Amino acid sequence: xxxxxxxxxxxxxxxxxxxxxxxxxxxxxxxxxxxxxxxxxxxxxxxxxxxxxxxxxxxxxxxxxxxxxxxxxxxxxxxxxxxxxxxxxxxxxxxxxxxxxxxxxxxxxxxxxxxxxxxxxxxxxxxxxxxxxxxxxxxxxxxxxxxxxxxxxxxxxxxxxxxxxxxxxxxxxxxxxxxxxxxxxxxxxxxxxxxxxxxxxxxxxxxxxxxxxxxxxxxxxxxxxxxxxxxxxxxxxxxxxxxxxxxxxxxxxxxxxxxxxxxxxxxxxxxxxxxxxxxxxxxxxxxxxxxxxxxxxxxxxxxxxxxxxxxxxxxxxxxxxxxxxxxxxxxxxxxxx
Length: 337
Ligand code: GLU
What we know:
Blueprint: H1 3-7, H2 21-35, E1 42-43, E2 59-64, E3 69-73, E4 79-80, H3 85-97, H4 99-106, H5 119-123, H6 134-141, H7 149-164, H8 172-180, H9 183-194, H10 202-213, E5 216-217, H11 219-230, H12 245-258, H13 264-270, E6 275-277, E7 282-287, E8 291-296, E9 299-300, H14 307-319
Antiparallel strand pairs: 1-9, 2-3, 2-8, 4-5, 6-7, 7-8
Helix pairs in contact: 2-14, 3-4, 3-7, 3-12, 6-9, 6-10, 7-10, 7-11, 9-10
């Protein structure tokens, strides 16, 4: 489909290009090698089965907007997507319902409180506030179209698979482990419902949310998914349009302010890229117009972000000039006046 049909208008986009494929490949390998010896942080254990992962795993992948692929280390190792699913489900919800409706129902501002906070809901009159925290993510999942929760789950899975360019499967062990221990998320679902802020039956919606978090991906998949958001909504590997360019812009704006839990401000300040992390150790960062970088390594900092992934992505943001806030004068200063 002609992008103008979906976006309505051709608009200016952020600029810049990556160096050639070989240089990018060299830098991806270097970023992986440099941070392999980093062993700080701890593996998540609040979802029981996550504690059993091999903490030494470390994968890095970069997918360019023109489809160039770069993998290093354990880039093809599978893990559950967890919170990173929130950004892609949010994109699907905006595609389905539009910018304004989703903004009204879910919100776009920071709560300033942990991702699974119940207090944030109470403090805001039952409004979920932000799609990257659990309350907002559960309200967003409820917006998936479908007559039954099975249909909504299928639509969601198909949508995330289109982002990845392959059919994503459920990690049944992670799903069962989280479904047994997600009382808090179920409480959040019911609280939202009590405020009239959740469409559908709360336990069913939370079940779909738990499934979306248990979808099995690799760092390579996450980079393809992110690169689709970097490429105006067209998957650079399959060439299929997944969402509109406007949806990518809206999604990345929200992710930029809240993607790394309580460290989101610090991340944007230091690295300058919208990125989303999850408790299983994945992080995907998106450089609009250029591509996406994804890391996977299970040891997390105190806020729940993969330590090695942050270091390796930060390394690439600097070496490839990805920071969205960085610029240089267009002309030498001496020629100006
Ligand atoms: N499934 C997890 C939860 O809802 C996601 C946590 C995360 O990755 O932040 O608690």
